[in-house]
Amino acid sequence: MEVLEKLRILSDAAKYDVSCSSSGSNRKNKNGGLGAAENSGICHSWSDDGRCISLLKILMTNYCIYDCAYCVNRFSNDLPRATFTPDEIVDLTINFYKRNYIEGLFLSSAVFKSPNHTMEMIFQVVKKLREEEKFNGYIHTKAIPGADKEIVEKVGKYVDRMSVNIELPTEEGLKLLAPKKNKESILKPMKLIKAGITQSIEETKKFRFSPKFVPAGQTTQLIVGATADSDLKVLRLSEGLYNSYGLKRVYYSAFIPVSTNPKLPAIKSPPLVRENRLYQADWLLRFYGFQSGELLDENKPDFDLALDPKCDWALRNINLFPVEINRADYNMLLRVPGIGVKSAMRIIQARRFSAIDFYDLKKLGIVLKRAQYFITCKGKHYGVKSMDGEIIRNYLTEKPIKFSNYQQLSLFDQVSIEDKYIEIGGQF
Amino acid sequence: MIHYIYDGSFDGLLTAVYEAYYRKDNVYDIVPEDNIEENFLVQNIFIPTDGEKSSTVYKSIENKISREALRRIFYVYLSELPRHGIIILKYIQLGFKLGAQLDLNLSNDIVLMMNNIYAKVSRERHGMLGLLRFKELENGIFYGAIEPDYNIIGLIAPHFESRMTNENWIIHDVKRGVGVFYNKEEWVIRNIKPTDSLVMKEEEEEYQELWKEYFKSIAIENKINPKLQKRNMPMRYWKYLVEKH
Description:
The complex is a heterodimer of chains A (428) and B (245).
Chain A: H1 3-12, E1 45-46, E2 52-53, E3 55-59, H2 86-98, E4 104-108, H3 115-132, E5 138-142, H4 149-156, E6 161-163, H5 171-177, H6 183-206, E7 218-224, H7 231-245, E8 249-254, H8 272-287, H9 292-295, H10 309-316, E9 323-324, H11 330-334, H12 341-351, H13 358-363, H14 368-371, E10 375-377, E11 380-381, H15 389-397, H16 417-425
Parallel strand pairs in A: 3-4, 4-5, 5-6, 6-7, 7-8, 9-10
Antiparallel strand pairs in A: 1-2, 10-11
Helix pairs in contact in A: 2-3, 3-4, 4-6, 7-8, 10-15
Chain B: E1 2-6, H1 10-23, E2 27-32, E3 43-46, H2 51-65, H3 67-79, H4 84-98, H5 109-131, E4 135-136, E5 142-146, H6 153-163, E6 168-173, E7 178-183, E8 187-191, H7 204-217, H8 226-232
Helix pairs in contact in B: 1-2, 2-3, 3-4, 3-5, 4-5, 5-6
């Protein structure tokens, strides 16, 4: 089979893995080799679905011994199959890299023969890249659930990032859709990677040049909407993974119907808004100091699809608002809807020189569409008169008015939000 | 209205800043010589570049303000945007009053303008690290053409020097007619005359085809989103992208 044909089959099979980040590693180029990693990561292109392409993301093979209902590569699925040789992958990676198409390689695989055998195949590729080709670009590989300690450690010494995909957030889900996988087989490699990273950090403290182990950390992926699990369950799992497994990222992937198995929910289109809400909440956990329990609880186990999780939280805790922009501390600023990490830092910086008013906020580039309802500047409030959660919710969820070509002009329709606060606040 | 005219080099701009200080003119703008505007109200004064004067300014920015400020000034100079000269002059004047605290003063209009232009140039620099495409020529040289909004080839060269250490490569800014040349040891910036005959290596097309195939098959059909794609990768950069042809 031609390499082009293999590439088509094995990148098509890899595309449902959402992770594509090339960040977190600052591997240097050494001994006149090729490539280096950039800590911030670099996107090289954006595919037609708008996702960043930074790595050559392929499967080693899509011949699989498992039959997981949610997966395109399940053995009962009738589709073209292929296997790359290590040389083919190495050649593609090196030549794509030299043309600056990619930051490196993301090598995953279906489970061929056994988890250990598959890992061994992956090992051949990464070893060749690092040792023979002196390749210092970014490498991300999968750790296959069920693989043994020795082989996970061998691979970990060569790669920047490793990931084990949990896919289904509960054990019942696994039993139903992926009967050959279980919780232990997934968590085992994750624990191994974590132990390896911890050990490597300890060693680096003692010996500066000891080899690094998975320097960009590990990640995982959860499928959203393939089982009936609530957002609360998903988010609690993520929180646990961040806190006790030290994961760098948890990715969420809206379930895309790839088969008509009766065990799977019948949906027409992937739940993209839900996926987006989970990402927003994930950010709140990692960078905004939120706990999962503040965002969701047993009485409200799913996110509001019409409103982002932070707005929703603020409206349920409206008694904390409005906050004075010139006095609120950093943590509180972060909790204001519409104010992100960058904006909060800018506010803190700017107000050391002089008190900030509403106009200054605009100049600083802070988006006030949402924030206006929750803040005061020098004591002035520019949102709505009463701090009533329900009223503000209406403003925030109202759809923008669409202008059609033929419309009767009216004095009272089409008042923009901007005009509203001029009306209410009396000034701009 | 007094316009200072400089030769377009960074040293020239800093010399103009020096003169503005010591001549105490009320300078309205500092303009590179190929951008002179003939205007009845404008009095153009040509400032000859002087290495000593410019290095005096260079050092005092570094010592009295910060290295970070110096970097911002260089980036804003590379933006080549209208009125960048006068913004830089005012920024330096303010900086000598405020010292290292200068960039924290975000509610000041000049600092803010500098900050915004700096952000634009840095963003394009970072974007170009990914969007540049090399082709392998017959003689083994990797050649990449770009048409960036700002004059950034000098900013991206060190990045490629550190990862393509063992290759010969050229980055060609087609819009400005200049290029970075790297010979496995060091890189230099030289003018490039327009040329139309670049002979590609035989296998070059093969890898381009492979890349295009990959680009097509990695997209998920149920999630096609051209708007998002264009927002992340503006169409003005598509001209030299292999996968977009």
